[in-house]
Fold this protein.
Amino acid sequence: MRTPEDIADEVKRLISGQLSIPIETIDVSSQIADLTVDSIQLFELLIAFEAFYQVKASYDDVVKLNTVGDIINYVEHKTK
Amino acid sequence: MNSTFAEIGDKDFWQKNKFLVIKDIQKSSPDRHTSYLSQAEISVLETKNRKLEWLTGRLAAKESLSKYLDLKSLPRNKPGDISVLSKNSGVPTFYLGKENLDLHLSISHSGDLAVANVCDSSGYLGIGVDIETVRDFKTRIVQSFMTGLEFSYYLDQDKETKNVFATVIWSTKESVLKALGSGLKIQPGRISLEFDKQRLAVSSVRLDDKKIELETSWTTHDDFYIMASTKLLIT
């Protein structure tokens, strides 16, 4: 069973690996639009999350996620 | 100002639409360019983390508007009198003072590149523009945004042109989704493109099985980046 701290850690690690940015520069308030360079990168990030957590994301929901904290909350909700 | 703009697209659709790509501005200070902004935009700029990227998009939009007005033989305003501000939906729009100009506008960024395009709202329901640098795609990603038929075309491409082709597909779909006003709320795999195989021009676009009436075109610059634009027709 993943704790909220585990999920926060995993999400930051996934973003860091996928976007090639240092993990220490990512925090819950980081804006996703500031971390990604373009829409393909955003889509690649989404696919990486779907693969890692074995979930199918709703695109309607995903576009409402603005910060890393929003992603963590979304993953917590989807993996319950 | 001209030195920071590189106008590309030299035929038909691209010429008529006066696409603009702005680059290299990122190497300079944002303060040098704030004379092109309205007071309302300067207030927004102060809240942005990626100031140069945001500014580059605004400059592309204003230059695109100038070209549009020239094309229609309409008078231009000073760039600082025009504001490019986002509606609640996030879609950018032009204001002259407090007056919302009756035009469709789309802006796209990729790294230090920005492109914008403008069209009137009397003939079109919306506009979408996209710019992407060509990159190495993982097959898993490509399959996620292509239909089966598109993926079979992709597999038919040479090793060198696979990534260009995949970027064309993505960029065209992104421009269609922006013109529809949905963005990524609609999974790009639900959009299917049919191509004229010779030129790889897009001949038909469907959302699920429904044909969308639009004008769409893409171009490339040295296979380094792809730009696509879509204008949704009023039917």
